[in-house]
Amino acid sequence: GQNIDQPTEMTATEGAIVQINCTYQTSGFNGLFWYQQHAGEAPTFLSYNVLDGLEEKGRFSSFLSRSKGYSYLLLKELQMKDSASYLCAVRHQTGANNLFFGTGTRLTVIP
Amino acid sequence: DTGVSQDPRHKITKRGQNVTFRCDPISEHNRLYWYRQTLGQGPEFLTYFQNEAQLEKSRLLSDRFSAERPKGSFSTLEIQRTEQGDSAMYLCASSPSGASTDTQYFGPGTRLTVL
How far, in Å, CA of B9 to CA of B22, rounded? Predict the structure, then answer.
């Protein structure tokens, strides 16, 4: 079966750095994705990891350790517009390559 | 705007009615996915198409649900005899192919409310 755990809510201050953790158990791992979702809107792609290590993309970085079933998303220089839900998703190693999502972490950025 | 469009954006219906949603993927993408998302949860996979072929269905997709992608372009998702438990956001996503680096791009979703 599959299981993804991430914190339900986090609060951070504008200009600060925040790390959102994600742990997963899955049969057949084929990559880990992070999506951002503002309320009432579609998830938008942030980052992708398939090998261990850190992927950096501007203010956003994502880390993966496959042996530990662990990933984190790091957001730097937080802005008010970063207030959103952040979804961790594992891609199945099947023909569909569909994504299995966690429940998401709702981040609130305060002044 | 990811380039994936869905119609309608909102649908309110009475229990027992049938509803149909449409998704237009990014034009060069041959893979199309349907997901369902309820409040406070992440999206859950329903089904996927490679071109016009529906190749996988989740056990969440009961026999009241049917999806088509007749010409390998747009797709429709129909729910027959809707139930209150069907109330959710229905998301469509597309990707170029099944390559390991492929990203799924989501549409804005159709929010269904069953009264």
Answer: 10
Contact flag A96-B48 (C-beta cutoff 8 Å): yes
CB contact under 8 A, A99 and B104: yes
Contact present, A80 and A26 (Cβ < 8 Å): no
pLDDT at residue B98 in the model: 60
C-alpha distance from A77 to closest chain B C-alpha (Å): 24
Interchain contact A48–B (C-beta under 8 A): yes
| Mean pLDDT of all residues belonging to chain B | 92
β-strand pairing of B10-13 with B110-114 = parallel
d(CA B50, CA B30): 6
pLDDT for position B99:
65
Token pair belonging to A16? 């600060």
How much is the pLDDT for A43? Answer: 93
pLDDT above 90: residue B74? yes
Cα dihedral value A64, B107, A102, A14, nearest 10: 70
What are the two backbone dihedrals, phi and then psi, of residue B84, each rounded to the nearest 5 degrees?
Answer: -60, -30
Beta bridge partners of B79: B19, B65
3-state SS assignment for residue B85? helix
